[in-house]
Design goal:
The complex is a heterodimer of chains A (194) and B (202).
Chain A: H1 12-24, E1 30-33, H2 39-50, E2 55-59, E3 63-69, H3 72-78, H4 81-91, E4 98-105, E5 110-111, E6 122-128, E7 141-145, E8 148-153, E9 159-165, E10 170-174, E11 186-193
Chain B: H1 10-22, E1 28-32, H2 37-48, E2 53-56, E3 60-64, H3 74-84, H4 86-96, E4 100-112, E5 117-121, E6 128-135, E7 147-153, E8 156-164, E9 170-175, E10 182-184, E11 192-201
Antiparallel strand pairs in B: 1-9, 2-3, 3-4, 3-5, 4-11, 5-10, 6-9, 6-11, 7-8, 7-10
Helix pairs in contact in B: 1-4, 2-3
The chains are: A alpha+beta (194), B alpha+beta (202).
Chain lengths: 194, 202
Amino acid sequence: MVGNVNEVYLRLEIVKQIRDQFLSNKTIPSVHLHEFLDKSFYILLRKEIFGLKLKNEIDRLSHKHQSGKITGEINNLLNDYNLLNFISLVIGKHVRKIDATCFSFGTGDYTVLNDLGKEKPGIDFVLDLTDDWNKDAGGQIVYTENKGDGLVVNPIGNSLLLVQRKNLHVRRFVKYVNHHAGKNKRVLVVGKIL
Amino acid sequence: MVQYVRDYSDNERTKLKKEFLSAKPFHNLVLDGFFDSSKLKKVFQALLKEPFERKEADLFDLCQTQDLETSEDKALIEFRDYLRAKEFVSFIESITGLNLRAGKISIAGSLYEDGNYLLCHDDQLEGRKIAFMIYFSDLNIRDGGSLDLFSSSKGKPKDIVKSIQPKFNRFAFFEVSKTSFHQVREVIGKQRFAIGGWFYGR
């Protein structure tokens, strides 16, 4: 499947720059890449993902959102060779597969930091499918190490966020989505890199 | 000492205690027009002169003053001292049936503006026995900003059972426990001023 990733990101010199940028943040290595997917592929993928039937997930002490596992054809599209190869080069580790889940955040939805929800160190893959987002609506992805904000990522459609959580103290949350979101949804494909 | 609250008879206290202990989803009480209105207006005017700092985390986005312990304003100092004095703490004890520590409270001003919120939590921290709020703003249901109290099941919050809407001179308080789950609903297009804090156990 050639053509899923924006061609700009397939140039070796660009990949090297991105890898350098990824590693430059010593505390929370990360990179946020805009216009990541080929535009027509992004539109197709977004349409498929927005068509998924998601389940309401509510535990008020930790999260409120909708989610659903990505399987079948959409999963195959995500596990495209160019994409896996690109991520492998950036993080410096062979990526065999992305195990992805779709999360949708509407007005009133959120996740919070929760000691019970500590994840093992690893690399997060977050593909953002949120278009036309009101900047006052919240919904930022925030990575913290202990109490301080380490990284705040604003919603931008067709962007890819790669973040390395080096230890158990690096955790993330999605900031409460307020009424400025209206009926718009903050949609993220979050993958475990295997 | 300046008096902010009228005297309550033993009968009145007994009635309020019954109301507090039978309230759902956990022990709480809401008293309207509780403080002397003109004196409370002066407290509010003084509060508006205090610096409010934006506080933002996973659980909240709001503005807050420092603990009023640090305030140098006469009206705020008097009000703080009144709330933590033995007379007022005894009044709260007589309603809640709890043993509270006179002389020690935490107290700060809060301002919620458009889009601000405080997500569901229980308030439990060492020594906290009673959480209280004194409202200065009048907000309608469509303005948000209510203090929502949740029922619980298996130690987790379940449904909103009671919503307390901000209203000038409304005094609300509840017993802090491992299931005193509550939130401040997102404020929409308004300002919500309040003073809140905690009484501590002896």
